[in-house]
Amino acid sequence: MSDGRLYIGTRRYSSWSLRGWLAVRLAGLDVAETAIPLAGGNTPEVKRVSPSGLVPYLEHRGNRVWETLAICEYCEEIAPGSIWPADLAARTHARVIAAEMHGGFRELRMAMPMNLGRPDFAGRGQTPGALADIARIEAIWAETRARFGAGGPFLFGAAFNGADAMYAPVVARLLTYRPPLSAATRAYCDAVRAHPLVAAWYAAAAGEPPEWIFPGYENPQ
Ligand SMILES: N[C@@H](CCC(=O)N[C@@H](CS)C(=O)NCC(=O)O)C(=O)O
């Protein structure tokens, strides 16, 4: 008997579900998983199960947690050290850049929607706003790796943590849409893509039923 349930959306498209799922798995929570096929922002089944009408949504030992950043913090409470670094300066910075991701980069998210089934959107979505968001993200990653990334390929070094989880869907977008990127950014993206949890999510996305494909998400400009 598990401790609860994590509700997620279509893995192929749901960037927030990927973040929440990564946090839950990093923390090792024993929860069952229910994936709900998304229907373009207004999915009745998501509205039925989730208090906010959005996924990811976690039920764990009677606690109800929505909003991805709250899920990260809850996971850290249950499994201290699984999401944020031990050092205060690093932990503060991880939380800050995770919050910047949670609250921002709207242009990038609109112009380059995540689609794990389509590695061939090169050249699409490169609006000025999306490119400005990408420049800011590259600066965040470069600064974070310069300050805290020694000893491994991830933002805070060897351990993939909550900050990497928050940016994993950005990595997925960069791999799909292939805007111009620095060599360091490309190396970080390759490391995130190769992480076993990220690879497991991609594999599960590839195994989703074809009828979960939502045409509205399959042809970005
Ligand atoms: N601020 C929320 C955003 C969650 C969100 O927008 N989730 C999308 C999927 S990626 C959703 O549930 N959409 C409802 C739908 O498509 O019906 C969070 O941090 O979790």
Beta-strand percent range: 5-15%
Give the oligomer, counting copies of the same chain as homo and different chains as hetero. single chain
Q: Could you tell me how far the N terminus lies from the C terminus, measured between alpha carbons in angstroms?
A: 45 Å
Helix-strand string = EHEHEEHHHHHHH
Percentage of residues in helical conformation: 40-55%
Number of alpha- plus pi-helical segments: 9
Ligand species: glutathione
- How would you classify the helix and strand content by structural class? alpha+beta
The biggest beta sheet reads: 4 strands, mixed
Q: What is the overall shape?
A: globular
Protein traits:
single chain; 221 residues; 9 helices; alpha+beta; 4 strands; binds glutathione; four-stranded mixed sheet
Concise account of the structure shown:
The chain has 221 residues and is α+β, with helices and mostly antiparallel strands. Helix content is 50%, strand content 9%.
Describe this structure in words.
This protein has 221 residues and is α+β, with helices and mostly antiparallel strands. Helix content is 50%, strand content 9%. It contains nine helices and four strands. Strands 2-1-3-4 form a four-stranded mixed β-sheet. 43% of the residues are buried. The structure holds glutathione (GSH). Glutathione binds next to helix 1.
